[in-house]
# Entry
Amino acid sequence: MIVVLLGAPGSGKGTQATKLKDALGIAHISTGDILRESIKKGTPVGKKAKEYMEAGGLVPDSIIIEIIAQRIKEPDCKKGFILDGFPRTVKQAESLDGILKESNLKIDKVISMDVTDSIVIERLSGRRTCRKCGVNFHIKYNAPSKENICDKCGGELYQRNDDKAETIKHRLEVYRKDTYPLLEYYKKAVINIKADEDIDKITERLMALIKGK
Ligand code: AP5
# Structure
């Protein structure tokens, strides 16, 4: 099962992909998480990506496509995977088609999670992320049991640099310019869902869609 989750920054892709991964027993591939981990480790990819990410722009396609080509060969992807934050440009989508074709694979579902800009701003400005395991919380909608401490691993929670108001605005512009055209690219397959309800309700809807109900 290969699922592509599309949606603006803050639409809830990461939150839902984490839950779907557990429910479906398939891998969760977040290019944002991979890049943040590369920055933390100071790898050559991390060094190249840092500036783009902090400014809220897109990391060059060539870097991202290479990351995906490698990642989907890993053993945990054998049963399938959820792509969260990739593809983000038409060039990335075309490359993904080529990579999958080489392995005789195809995308099963493309789902676009739709939210308004005001919801994005509220969600991202209240997001807190675990420094250790990367899990996301929200100070109002998905609060940790203890302030600033991750429920899952006890790590410290922090606010991402790109979750500051000005950068969020820029990320939304980048989304509209570079990623929105993917809805046209996938127009025969894409399923749009309203992603402004509570987290568990959206998971239920996604599970029903994925299982074809
Ligand atoms: P990335 O990490 O992928 O960021 P993003 O796509 O902007 O998405 P977010 O992680 O901000 O949001 P999300 O939709 O996952 O929402 P979440 O579930 O966390 O990418 C970061 C950067 O890396 C990019 O800007 C770019 O520079 C680079 N990059 C990554 N991939 C790339 C690519 N393919 N090409 C080029 N560059 C790339 O939810 C947000 C908050 O809302 C959380 O606090 C959550 O708890 C809360 N929440 C979630 N759902 C709900 C709900 N239903 N109700 C209430 N609150 C909710």
In short: The chain has a mean pLDDT of 96.
